[in-house]
Amino acid sequence: MINIREETVEFLEIEGRKTLKGVVHVSGAKNAALPLMAATLLTDEAIILNNIPYLLDVFTMKSLLEHIGIEVTELEKGKFLFRFSEVNSLEAPYELVSKMRASILVLGAMLARFHQAKVALPGGCSIGTRPVDFHLTALKKMGAQIKVEHGYIYAKAPDGLKGTVIEFPKKTVTGTENIMMAASIAEGKTVLKNAAKEPEVVDLANMLKKMGAQIEGEGTDTIVITGVKRLKGTEHTIIPDRIEAGTFAVLSALFDGNIIIENYPYQYLKYVHNILEKIGVTMVQVGRNSFVAKRLKTLYPAKIETREYPFFPTDLQAQFMTLLSVVEGVSTIRENIFENRFMHVPELRRLGANIKINNRTAVISGVKKLTGAPVKATDLRASAAMVIAGLIAEGTTRIYNIYHLDRGYEDIDSKLRTLGAEVSRGVE
Ligand code: EPZ
Description:
Bound molecules: ligand EPZ
Distance between the termini: 23 Å
Helix content: 25-40%
Strand content: 25-35%
Strand order of the largest sheet: 22-23-1-24
Shape: globular
Largest sheet: 4 strands, mixed
């Protein structure tokens, strides 16, 4: 007799087509918080981080840092003190890394500071194989001895890391961040060519410079880091999350601009605004950092290509696909960054969307309306696309695998309820 273990499955249930109206606040950027937290390994002095978002990934990184030897204390909501006490472990274990691939961000800092690290190889995820070969090749060039076996990266640099010239074959966000951290206390100068230019990379450079690092060129294709002996403590406030902000811009556009977005990082979304303008949506400033999406009566189809910053971000691809699925006409979205980031397409089809995939391009023929159905979240950002779809669909939508959503969106249920959404969680 085979006992099929009944797994309890959590879901988010949404009653669609409620009138949403009100104010949402953009939280601190997840993809800035994670490298900034990893950077606390680079000094034995205290670091205070403000505007930390309460996300699963952030608490996984907190557990990883505590496992290694950093004391983490919550001083008040969103404000945490990080202080290195002593090395408990030089291993980032599989049970933590498997929950969050960005755990790879501790590798560079541990190697540079402790000259040794054992980090579980991050698995792939639903959007792609997500290799880390660029990170390892670069660290080897800086003098690290690295071997990968039994699912672990074994790295050591008995004489410390040495600065050198590194050129990434493709722009890599966490690769750039990993090497920037390692190079900040390596010996000599490191030139990082074909570096990622995301605002989160610049935010990390800004904090490292406050800690005494010598970094130039952050935000451009070439970053030059001159290693220093040691870094000191500092206090830093994390930038707003441009992906959460872009997600809310889509929501505001779909709800006739009745949603005001506070703490909106307008300057990080220029290319996204270009696309919104083509669709017939303008982000209008209504307060110091508050914006609202003003839209034309009729929206227009669009042609989107995801590329590295400052162009259209892959992390907003799914959310825009939901928007375009109810815009009359034929839109196309080409996903150039990840090889498998269309897992939300079959789920949107279940809600009535008309989308075809040709290799890396999705062809979306707008439909009049979506209708509610049980669907599943397939990755962190696609889960937000399904929430938006549920909010505009007629009837009830249940989204399973909802842990994806909690990894990237702080208090999403309460933020949506504040707007008048009928959202509840359940377990089956
Ligand atoms: C970062 O992932 C983000 N995560 C991702 O956000 C984001 O989608 C991605 O950048 C692209 O913008 C964090 O910052 C924590 P990459 P990362 O290295 O650094 C290939 C989210 O939703 N590549 O820039 O892992 C890779 O396969 C997440 O918050 C290699 O081949 O992405 C991809 O095709 C999802 N070898 C491309 O480069 C490597 O060693 C860009 O990846 C590294 C990357």
